[in-house]
Structures are given as C-alpha cells and as structure tokens.
Amino acid sequence: MYTESMKESIKKLEATRPERTKQEIPLLSAEERQKLLEEFHPDFKKGSMRALQVGPSKGEKTPHEFADLFEAYSLIDPEKYDLSQIDYETDVLVIGGGGAGASASILAQEAGARVLLVSKLRLGDANTNMAQGGIQGADKPNDSPVQHYLDVIGGGRLFNIPELVRALVIDAPEILSWLEQLGVMYDKEPDGTMITIHGGGTSRKRMHSARDYTGGEIMKTLRDEVNNRPIDVIEFSPMVELLIDGKKCTGAILYNLETKEYVNVRAKTTIIATGGSGRLHVQGFPTTNHYGATGDGPVIAYRAGCKIIFLDTIQYHPTGAAFPEQILGQLVTEKVRSLGAQLVNVEGNRFVYELETRDVEAAALIRECTKREKGVVTPSGMKGIWLDSPLIETLKGEGAIKKNLPAMYRQYERFNLDMSKEPILIYPTQHYQNGGLVINDRCETEIENLYVAGEASGGIHGRNRLMGNSLLDVVVFGRRAGRNAGEKAKSVTPGRLTLEHVKNYHRELKEAGIDPSRKAPVLLPDYRREEIRKKQAM
Ligand SMILES: Cc1cc2nc3c(=O)[nH]c(=O)nc-3n(C[C@H](O)[C@H](O)[C@H](O)COP(=O)(O)OP(=O)(O)OC[C@H]3O[C@@H](n4cnc5c(N)ncnc54)[C@H](O)[C@@H]3O)c2cc1C
Fold first, then answer.
1. How wide is the angle at C-alpha 425 spanned by C-alphas 422 and 428, nearest 5°?
2. Which domains does the chain have, with CATH numbers?
3. Is the CB of 433 inside a 6 Å radius of any atom of ligand 1?
4. Which of 67, 86, 238, 453 could be 481's S-S partner, Cβ–Cβ 3.0 to 4.6 Å?
5. Rg of the chain, C-alpha, whole Å
6. Residues with catalytic annotation?
C-alpha cells in the first residue's frame, strides 16, 4: 500500500526504534509552548479571522468560516413567515440528538416534564457516537476533583471559566457511575477495577474507556434510555430559527428535511445541544466530525441575543489520518499515543514529547512538515508524520493493538495496512470547537428559558480542551440543562411565538452592508464541485 519512498522512510523509523524506546523528551516550558503556538498553530495564522460587525459579540474575532455564518440572514423571511399554527407543544424542547441532548432529555423527563427531542439527522448521528479514546473523571484514590480541575485549567491555557470547570470536575465521578448504571461497559481489570490511562496534559491516569469506541458505547446506552422513556423524538428536522417573545425563548422553527416543510414548536423551555462545527472546514482542514456538525446552534442563538466566547480557538487534533486518502482527516485517537506510539519524522526521528496538550502537539507537527521540511510525502503530495504504532506491541506485548484499539485496527485493515506491524501516517485535522455560547453552571443563557449544553457552549475548556473532557462535559452539562429546564418549565406560562429578533438582526445586517444572499444555518455541508454547482443552478 505504501509507496517506495514511504517504505524507505519506514526502514529508517524501524532502525531508530530501539534507541527511541529509551529516549526521553522533556515537556516544553511555558515560553517554548507559547512561541511554538504563535508560530505554527492555525489559530494564530494572520488573516484567518475577522472581527464580527454585528450582534451581541460585535468586535470579537472568529475564523472567516464562522463569521460568514454569524453575519448572515435567516433562512426564514420574518416579514412573511406564518406563525399562526402551532404544530407541536411541549414543556421542554431539546434540540440535538447527541450526548448532551440525550442526557438533557432524560433528566428533564425525570423532573416531570413533557419532553420533545428533535434532531437534524437520526438520534445518535452525532460526534458523541464517534468518540473513541475515553472519558475523564477523578475516581481513583491517587486522584481528586482538585487535581482534575488544575489539569483542565492548565490545558485551557488558564482561560477557562472557573465555575464551569468546578461543575465539570465535581460531577465527574457521579457521571461515570450514572453511565455505568444505565449500561455503559467500561474497560476493567479482572478484579473489577477501572482501567485508566493518561491523556495529553493529564497529571493522573484518569481516562476511562470502552476499548476505542467509548463514545459509541455511551451514545448507544443513552439512545436506548431515551427510547425506553416517554420522550417524543423527531428526526431529520433541524432547528432553523428560535422563537422569542421579548427576552424569553418560546420555542423554535424546524425544517423537515424529507417533506421540506417548516414546523412550529412552542415550548416552555428550550435546550440547544447541537454540537460542533468541524464541517465548516476552517482554513481548508479536513475534519473528524460527523456530517451534521455545521455550528447551527451558536449561529441561531447569536441572532436571538446570546453572546459567544472563545470562538477564535479551534482544536485541530494532532493525529488525523493523512493516508490513505479515503480516510483523510478521520481520527486516530490520542489513545494510540497514550499506549506508547511515538511521532516520528521522515528521517526516523522524534521531535516532540507525545503527550503535550493537543494545541502544542498540532503546532509541532505542522512545524515539522513545513518549516523543517521533515514530513513524509504521500502520493497526493500531502505531507504527514509517522505514528509508530507497532511500538505499542513492543511495549505492551503482542496483540495489544487488537485488544485496545479494535476499531482503529479495522479502519486500517480495510486498506490492507496492519498497524501492529507498520506505522500509520497522520496530520492535524479539525476536531473540536473550543468556544461557543456563553452559559453559567446551570446552563442558562442571556435569553430566559433558553439553555445550552455540550460542544455548542463555550468557556469550560478555555482555549484548548484536554482529551476525555468533552464526553464528560456533554453528560455533566446535558444533565444540568435537562434538570434545570425541566424544573423551570413548571413555572413558565407559554409565550407568544415571534420573529421580532430576526427582523432586528436583519436590520443590523443591512446597516452593516452585508450581502443579503448570505444565509445561515447551512444545515449540511455542500461538497459539490464548483462546475457541478454552476450546472445545477442553471
Ligand atoms: C471522531 C471523534 C472522536 C472524539 N473522541 C473523543 C474522546 O475520546 N473523548 C472526548 O471526551 N471527546 C471526544 N470527542 C469530542 C466529543 O465526542 C464531542 O465534543 C461531544 O460528543 C459533543 O457532544 P454534543 O452532544 O455536544 O454534540 P453531538 O454529539 O455532535 O450531537 C449534536 C447533535 O445535534 C444535532 N444537530 C446539529 N445541528 C442541529 C440543528 N440545527 N437542529 C437539530 N439538531 C441539530 C446533530 O445532528 C447531533 O445529533 C470526539 C469527537 C470526534 C468527532
């Protein structure tokens, strides 16, 4: 499968393996990390962002790909749209069928509320389902929520909102056991002790996993729980606009992807759990994200008056697949490095400690392939770095890869690559939205009766999330949002359905001279080539 030049490079990698196994690379100092980030991390690339011209976070910088959506008109014409008919009425409307949405629905239903969960695709078609490596939680005797707190803040470059981190780490042990009670099967020692490993930036072995399909295991369990409860679910019906009465949220408009009709939902409280935005392909990066990850929640809530935070920081996962091209950008879990695989350049040399935080790791990889010109060239001309996966078998014994990384092993086996015998080629890929909508530790927003949970929110992880803290965050804050929205709904009288906020936003856009043909949310990415687009428009 590998080309001749790639095979030559692999020979060098194999030759250095015995020495590399003994080699110690120290962690970078704070100054070295900052310098590396400023020179090579895509967030720092000049000209890649712009300040928003409109809305509640006017002046904040964000990548052009996001700014194009925030500075866009609604898919709905608020002057003409008919809101006289209410198609669905509920206590709590949950928007998004991933880990945050499912957790929120369960807790809202437990609080006694009528719950309607709506999703863009099917329940469980979500980034949560794709998560591989694990979920953090301080439940070992040598660990504590305080230790976990310090790691999260350090990883986030000290920008994190303290009250949100506090909620994250304090709830974590309870979340691990709640998931287990629902049916999640974690990896365990024969005596029943949880198996835990390190992730980049963790001071304790705190990563709990279900092989390398932890998110799949969690999503399957939560989905079953939603289906087993009296929770109504509508699939293939993304939210396209919120409904606001003064400063209160009163529901949302959905778009039925099948019938192409709009649907009006009136709700006492609403929870946005629409996840991330990898499919925006910031700076042309490939992505690990699922097809529906187009950042809709923040874009729609921003129009309604919710502020955003840290949307100038994107997490590029250091190890996305760079070869074969069919899986370009797909995730190679950090667990591969946690288990001992090393990053090696074209000459067979290491150049960074493998468990630096992801931002630093990605910047080091980009430097190796650009300025230092030590990348391995693929047949398409792309450059990548070797991940010396066979080293895992050397360190942990034969069969360790198939046992700990069965999904990853199969992903490469489909292309006749045996990652237990040959290294795999990787390069950074767009993975996670570090920022999002501003919330407090009850998941409340600036708009009354509107809550946000999961990747759509920002502040928890500062400017860089550590591995395993997102699966944790979506359940911690999903549950908090569900419980609080469910309780609040008991005292809310259903409000009027209006689109006044959209009219006002359109006015602001017009005054700023924004092209009226720019519309958002995009709902699904458009991968048609330019000439096909033109042909189809004719
Ligand atoms: C490949 C991969 C591996 C990962 N591995 C890990 C890991 O090991 N550990 C970890 O902690 N984190 C990991 N992450 C990150 C983590 O999985 C996600 O950040 C997290 O699961 C997001 O959960 P969520 O519920 O906020 O969003 P999602 O799980 O993405 O769910 C969002 C839901 O909202 C729906 N939706 C979107 N727009 C709309 C709309 N307009 N209307 C209605 N519905 C909408 C989507 O279809 C989806 O159902 C990984 C992510 C990926 C992509």
1. 150
2. 4-44+319-427 (3.90.700.10), 113-233+462-474+484-490 (3.50.50.60)
3. no
4. 453
5. 23
6. 317, 337
